[in-house]
Amino acid sequence: MGQSNETGKLIGAILLGTAIGAVLGTIFAPDKGSETRKKILAKGDDLTDAIKDKITDLFDEAKKETGTMKDKANSLFEKGAARVDHLELK
């Protein structure tokens, strides 16, 4: 789970850097105000889509990790139950 946290931080930093770069690029571009506003809105939509994708990826990874932990817990339970059964037979 630690690696996924580091990956999340990295992707978050990349998204933040992209957003800042996009805003600065459009602010300093030599376009009319209406064109600049359109560009900022488009970049905002792109950023929103990227954030949605990241959240979906994180939820998918959490589901996968939860499934893995559930499988491990079931395996440990079965091993423990087998040991108890073995002790009861003696």
Fold blueprint:
Blueprint: H1 2-27, H2 33-89
Summarize the structure.
The chain is mainly α. The chain has helices spanning 2-27, 33-89.
Structure in words:
0% of the residues are buried. The protein contains two helices and no strands. It is rod-shaped, with a radius of gyration of 24 Å. Helix content is 92%, strand content 0%. The protein has helices at 2-27, 33-89. The mean pLDDT is 82. It is mostly helical and 90 residues long. α1 runs antiparallel to α2. The chain has one domain (2-89).
Number of helices: 2
> What is the average per-residue confidence, as pLDDT, rounded to a whole number?
82
Strand percent estimate: under 5%
Return Rg in Å.
24 Å
- Low-confidence sequence ranges: none
Terminal Cα span: 41 Å
Structural class: mainly alpha
Total tally of structural domains: 1
Count all strands and give the number.
0
Largest sheet: none
Helix content bin: over 70%
The run of helices and strands is: HH
Could you say which overall geometry the principal axes of the C-alpha atoms support? rod-shaped
Distinctive features:
single chain, 90 residues, 2 helices, 92% helix, 0% strand
